[in-house]
Amino acid sequence: MQIGMIGLGRMGGNMAERLRHAGHEVIGYDRDPAASDVASLAELARRLEAPRTVWVMVPAGGPTRETIKELGGLLAAGDLVVDGGNSHYVDDLEHARELSVAGIRFVDTGVSGGVWGLDNGYGLMAGGADEDIARLMPVFDALKPAGDYGFVHAGKVGAGHFAKMVHNGIEYGIMQAYAEGYELLAATDVVTDVPGTFRSWREGTVIRSWLLDLLVRALDEDAGLGKIKGVVEDSGEGRWTVQAAIDHAVPMPAISAALFARFASRQEDSPAAKVVAALRNQFGGHAVISATAKPPAPPSA
Fold first, then answer.
1. Which residues does the chain have with pLDDT short of 50?
2. 275, exposed or middle or buried, with CB in 10 Å at 0-12, 13-18, 19+?
3. SS3 letters for 75-111?
4. What is the pLDDT of residue 301?
5. How many CA atoms lie within 13 A of 54 on its CB side?
């Protein structure tokens, strides 16, 4: 099958390579001329045979919206656009509506797998019409892991990115639980081999997972994690997950707490903590620490 791939970064580039390994013809476009097979989206559209299939793998938000808008003027009725980035599911509805005016089909696909997907395969969550999903199945089969799992036609347009949004929210919660467990183990002298403890959990336990495997790998490379700062960014999907939970009145305390923990990681000196310290001093005379004082030494275990 022939397919155009727009965006050949860490994910898109590896996906294009995996598709080529499976025998598909991929024509790639990227802003970096060294990585691109064509010089422009217009050239990409000319190189593809009708009915054309184009997979968009660029950052969510403005870059995706601009790319899909440009494709709307280059493609024709019967062509198919796939948004495989981390777009908000509400954007999918607008993209599908805009493209449908010209008879262009649209499928949204949440993609999980990161830099390991080239070798291991990608988890794919697709949203769209049955006939469009059927048309894309050779591509989905090539990208997903071998076997029965790794792909779902989650529902209508928007369902793929909604499922990926919830997937990423769950990921936030699992990572935060591992992180808090690590901090507690490292804070005591009762457990003297923290990396070994996590390594032992990789088999035979109910908390084993690929994320645990990756944590063990990180600890093998840097046992005390002293080479990195504990500043954690968020891609936006955690926020969207919590907002969707609010919209649907679904309680989501673990994922919400994990998102807020990421916000806290970016504060060198929390304004909220300052307020609590000031209030404790005001009502109870509790001591406060001067802003110019050296930070206290951690308590001995």
1. 301
2. exposed
3. CCCCCEEEECCCCCHHHHHHHHHHHHCCCCEEEEEEE
4. 42
5. 32
| Residue 23, helix vs strand vs coil | coil
With residue 150 as reference, give the H or E element that holds it: none
Res 287: pLDDT: 87
Residue 292 — φ and ψ, nearest 5°? -95, -5
Q: What is the pLDDT of residues 113-142, one digit of tens each?
A: 988 999 999 999 999 999 999 999 999 999
CB neighbours of residue 12 within 10 Å: 23
Residue 144 annotated in active site? no
Please give the helix or strand (H or E) that residue 298 lies within, else none: none
Name the one residue in this structure whose structure tokens are 């155009």: 4
How long a stretch of residues is the chain? 301
- DSSP states along 138-163: HHHHHHSPSSS-SEEEEESTTHHHHH
Q: Name the residue among 167, 90, 67, 171 with its Cα closest to residue 125.
A: 167
* Residue 246: partners with Cβ closer than 8 Å, 6 or more residues away: none
Catalytic member of 131, 171, 227, 233: 171
Catalytic residue among 17, 156, 164, 221: 164
At 213 the three-state DSSP class reads: helix
C-beta separation of 175 from 258 below 8 A: yes
164 is catalytic: yes
Residues 6+ apart with CB under 8 A from 84: 11, 12, 15, 55, 56, 57, 109, 110, 111
Q: CB within 8 A of 52, min separation 6: which ones?
A: 4, 45, 75, 76, 79, 80
